[in-house]
Specification:
By secondary structure, the chain is of the alpha+beta class. It is built from three helices and six strands; from the N terminus they run E-E-E-E-E-H-H-E-H. The chain is globular and about 55 Å long.
């Protein structure tokens, strides 16, 4: 069997590597002189330099605290994270609407202790 290599990207929040399909790509759109808005790009088609983030509010908070967005996108100026934060929060809220089952953050994954599935 031939194994196919899938592209891996690094989350700007937690700095963990993950398959690109598990991360949300975002780009910066200019709003004037030195003002940029971080816009999610789930289709991965927008032009420009992009960065990736887990769909986890903790990763978003950590990236904001570390000021990682400017470094990842190679930008200086004011960065508006509003649209990106809204996309992360709505995706997380939509994931919890279907019975509370969401994918755990890579640092929180581990073995299950439920023996009934064996």
């Amino acid at each position: 069997m031939v194994r196919r290599a899938y592209p891996e990207r690094t989350c700007v929040g937690c700095r963990k590597r993950a398959p690109a399909s598990e991360l949300l790509r975002f780009v910066a759109i200019g709003n004037g002189a030195d003002r940029f808005s971080l816009v999610p790009d789930p289709a991965r088609r927008r032009p420009g330099r992009g960065a990736h983030l887990h769909l986890d509010p903790a990763c978003l908070t950590q990236a904001e605290r570390r000021r990682a967005f400017g470094r990842a996108l190679r930008l200086t100026g004011v960065l508006d994270t509003g649209p990106l934060a809204e996309a992360v929060c709505t995706t997380v809220a939509a994931g919890t609407a279907d019975g509370g089952r969401t994918e755990p953050h890579p640092e929180q994954q581990g073995r299950t202790t439920d023996m009934s599935t064996r």
